[in-house]
Amino acid sequence: MIGVAREVGWVRIGELATATGTTARALRHYEQAGLISSERASNGYRVYDEQAVVRVRNIRHLLAAGLTLDDVRVFLPCLDGDVAAAPPSDQGLRVALERLAVLNQRIAAQTEARDRLEAALRRATGGRIRPAV
Amino acid sequence: MIGVAREVGWVRIGELATATGTTARALRHYEQAGLISSERASNGYRVYDEQAVVRVRNIRHLLAAGLTLDDVRVFLPCLDGDVAAAPPSDQGLRVALERLAVLNQRIAAQTEARDRLEAALRRATGGRIRPAV
DNA sequence: TTCAACCCTGCCGCCAGCGGCAAGGTCAAG
DNA sequence: CTTGACCTTGCCGCTGGCGGCAGGGTTGAA
């Protein structure tokens, strides 16, 4: 096949990887972590629909935000773009609230750290530096 | 000895640990990483001067700011006294700026993630929830 | 037919920042 | 003299997010 699947509506793992800027290895890892799923072709190859691209991109975004795979799992219902499909169950809500609190905590801690670093830099350079924000 | 060394001008590892809110284990780790050094008493015990307290606190600050041990090593010349005390090297500045940028990125991404989650929650609950911030 | 480019599972490795434990030595207090 | 609080070195373990390799199978193209 070698790279022609674009118009068929499905992709295999390699293509999904390059399309999302990751690796096949990482994608298998996400699948094992329960973040994505895949159909299988008759030969055993993983087959993804095009939604997967969005989904994986969202995952990567959250990971880049400093979330763990576990954290990301909480966002699963929202990962396919439709935010209205968010956690309907009480349990889901509770988990989501917890995660929200954790996120806020982390943001606060990192913001504090950043401010300290920035202040130190300013002192160290006599205010001669304007850090690119 | 049991806790009386305060007026002697030197401390052993346990005291340094509690004084800096870390553990002896971590301090040995920092030493092995080349971030701090120690004299040795005749019995082999590590002996630190009181400067070490400041030094370790600064190290912890930088670590809390999201730097790695490797990053911190670059700041070694500045680690005694106030961080602003010694003129930081160009390399130190560069690392700090890089780290600052990374921190800002993460904070932004996480804030975005949080906002999305919060919005989703609000929609999912019809605005009935006021997440504790 | 044979090659190269894919794909599969499974497992070990790596980095960071320590934690924890074993197996000892040291020293002051009781 | 014993206890126990402290110290030493050394090494294995853990978490997270993969990387990489071995040892296979499946295609499409030349």
What does this protein structure show overall?
The structure is a homodimer of 133-residue chains. The N and C termini of chain A lie far apart (45 Å). The first copy, chain A, has 5 helices and 3 strands; from the N terminus they run βααββααα. With 133 residues, chain A is mainly alpha-helical. In chain A, helix 1 (13-20) crosses helix 2 (24-32). In chain A, strand 2 (39-40) and strand 3 (46-49) form a beta hairpin. In chain A, strands 1-3-2 form a 3-stranded antiparallel β-sheet. The longest helix of chain A has 35 residues, at 90-124. The first copy, chain A, is 54% helix and 6% strand. Chain A is elongated, with a radius of gyration of 20 Å. Chain A has helices spanning 13-20, 24-32, 51-64, 69-74, 90-124; strands at residues 10-11, 39-40, 46-49. At the A-B interface, helix 3 and helix 5 of A face helix 3 and helix 5 of B. The structure holds a DNA duplex (30 and 30 nucleotides).
Explain briefly what this protein structure is:
2 copies of one chain form a homodimer. In chain A, helix 1 packs across helix 2.
List keywords for this structure.
133 residues, mainly alpha, 3-stranded antiparallel beta sheet, 5 helices, 54% helix, 6% strand, elongated, disordered N terminus, DNA-binding
Q: Major sheet of chain A: size, sense and barrel closure?
A: 3 strands, antiparallel
Give me the side-by-side strand order of the main sheet of chain A.
1-3-2
User: Rough shape of chain A?
Assistant: elongated
- Gyration radius of chain A (Cα, Å) is 20 Å
Average pLDDT taken over every residue of chain A:
79
Oligomer description: homodimer
Residue runs with pLDDT of under 50 for 5 or more positions of chain A: 1-5
* Chain pair with largest interface: A-B, 40 and 41 residues
Report the span from N to C terminus of chain A.
45 Å
Percent of residues in β-strands of chain A: 5-15%
Which structural class do the helices and strands of chain A define?
A: mainly alpha
Helix percentage of chain A: 40-55%
Helical segment count of chain A = 5
Number of strands of chain A: 3
Give the H and E element order of chain A: EHHEEHHH
